[in-house]
Design goal:
9 strands; single chain; seven-stranded mixed beta sheet; alpha+beta; 234 residues; two-stranded antiparallel sheet
Length: 234
C-alpha cells in the first residue's frame, strides 16, 4: 500500500473524539468537596458538569488533563491520577466520544475564587453533589472509591491540607474521605507511628484557648511512604 493509499484509508475511517474529564477533590471548610461547573456548550449547556476538554492533536492525554487543571485553578504540578476510560456508545449525545477520567487533589483553601467564578465553578460536598451531565456522577463516585482505596495504602493529605495543620484537621480529612467518625486517640497514635509529621512550636487557637499544635508534613518521609506503600486501615 502506497503512502497516498494509507492516507486515504485513514481519512475515510470514522472519527471518534477523545476527551479528558477531571474529578477535582478539595478539602474545604472541614469537608471533602468536588469542583464542578456550569457547562457552556451544547448539548446540555447550563447543566452541572465536571471539568473537561477534548484532547488536542498536539498533546497526550495526561498533558490535556494538566491543561484543564491549570486553566481552571492556575495550579501546576497538581496531584493527578488517571482513573479509567468511559466509552459507552451513547454516553455523549453530541458526538461519539471516549473520555479518559482523571482525579486530582488540590488545597481548596488556597483556591483563587475569581478563577473559579470566571468558569462558573462551585464546590459541592459528595452528598450535596447535583445531577451532573452524561456519566459524570458515575465518574465522581468511582473516583471517590479509588481515593478511599488509595488512602489505605499511602498517606493522603499533602495535597489537600495547608502547609500547617493540626492532627484533628488531618483526622477530619480522613473522616470526610471514609464518611465515618474515627477514634481520636487511635488515629493520633497511628499517624504519629508513621513518622511523617513534624511538630512545630506554633498552635492553632481557633477551637480552644489551650490550642492545638500545628504540624507540617516531612516531605521526604511522606514521599517514601507514597512510593513504598503502607497499611493505614482505620
Amino acid at each position: 500500500m502506497s503512502l497516498k493509499q494509507q492516507q486515504d484509508w485513514y481519512e475515510h475511517q470514522q472519527k471518534i473524539h477523545i476527551a479528558v474529564d477531571c474529578i477535582i477533590f478539595g478539602f474545604y471548610e472541614g469537608k471533602l468537596k468536588l469542583l464542578v461547573f456550569k457547562r457552556k456548550i451544547e448539548p446540555l449547556s447550563g447543566k452541572w458538569s465536571l471539568l473537561g476538554s477534548f484532547v488536542k492533536s498536539t498533546e497526550d492525554v495526561k498533558s490535556a488533563a494538566e491543561r484543564v487543571l491549570y486553566e481552571l485553578t492556575g495550579l501546576e504540578k497538581v496531584y493527578l491520577k488517571e482513573l479509567k476510560s468511559y466509552s459507552d456508545i451513547n454516553r455523549d449525545p453530541g458526538q461519539r466520544c471516549i473520555s479518559i477520567a482523571h482525579y486530582a487533589l488540590i488545597n481548596a483553601e488556597g483556591q483563587d475564587a475569581k478563577t473559579a467564578k470566571d468558569h462558573s465553578a462551585q464546590w459541592f460536598t459528595i452528598k450535596e453533589l447535583p445531577e451532573l451531565v452524561l456519566d459524570h456522577n458515575i465518574m465522581a463516585q468511582e473516583a471517590l472509591d479509588a481515593l478511599k482505596k488509595e488512602a489505605r495504602y499511602q498517606p493522603i493529605g499533602f495535597e489537600l491540607l495547608p502547609d500547617l495543620f493540626t492532627i484533628p484537621q488531618l483526622q477530619a480529612l480522613y473522616e470526610a474521605i471514609y464518611d465515618k467518625t474515627l477514634d481520636s486517640r487511635n488515629f493520633r497514635k497511628k499517624v504519629i507511628s508513621f513518622n511523617f509529621l513534624i511538630k512545630t512550636d506554633e498552635k492553632d487557637h481557633s477551637s480552644s484557648k489551650k490550642g492545638a499544635y500545628l504540624y507540617r508534613f516531612d516531605e521526604y518521609r511522606y514521599r517514601e511512604l507514597v512510593a513504598s506503600g503502607y497499611d493505614f486501615t482505620l
